[in-house]
Amino acid sequence: MDKNQWIALGVALGLLVLLLLAAMFYCLHLLFRRRASLTADKEEEGEQLLPEGSPVPHPKDQVPVKPAALPPFHLASPELGPQKIQIYGQRNCYLSQEGILGVKPGEQGHKWRGNVIVLDPSGTIFQTRCYSGGGASGALYAALGVYGEAVGQVVSSALARSRVVVNPSIFIGRHYRVHVVHLQSPDMRRRDGGEASVRVLKMQLLLLFLEAFSVIRRESFPGDSIIMMPLVASGIHSGGIGTQDYCRAFCDAFCTAAAELGGGDLVAALGVQELRICCYGTDTQRALAEVMAQRAITGRGALD
């Protein structure tokens, strides 16, 4: 092959390389244009999904959200509506139809979910140092599997010193962890049902609630806990005090204690998620709701 042929071959190869490079750049150009078009379409679609009047987020504000860690216990969502009536002026505080076992009257067993703090209303344990008795406390001890057993030495010593005692045991089930706080319920059986007795009951409940709330706050229970609060000193412990008068005393005591300790956010002050006043049915629930509604309207307690 002579010199001219080598030159012709070199020129041909050079042209071929140039054609290949041109084709490659053209393909890259089409690819970038396609990607830019898709990006613009997505941004336009995203803007259409924003509610009217909503500010378009700046790219710097669009920080990827890490998935929340799953808690060891999953709390049942609040059953709002007729099952619960929110207490006016208190966030996440409700009047509930259920009892301290999480079931309505007539239902068997318990329906606790997650971390639960049960306030035990019986004063009997303070005298007997034993998990015994009837009513709400007896049902609680049976559900926890300790009915008839004697309390431990630590609990026994605490019961002798205070009206509010946190049981050091944590009762663990498949779906729950129950913390128990024993309350020495006021006993009004030796009093008549007059107005003076109602005021005495209110004052005793107020002092008990203030102490109980202070103890719960100091204990630092899990933040996702639900407090199951019974109608302390109700039933036989209320003596000759009628239902309506009992509701007046209970509401005044609870609302005063809640406002003094937590303002309008008692659950935040206690470090818990929710508080339920367990009314054991609709009659007492509605009666308490009426008294609390009247208090909200007048700005005064029923016994002020």
From TrEMBL:
Name of the protein: Macro domain-containing protein
Sorted keywords for this record are: Membrane, Transmembrane, Transmembrane helix
- Region ranges (Disordered): 43-63
Q: To which species is this protein native?
A: Neorickettsia findlayensis
Annotated transmembrane regions: 6-32
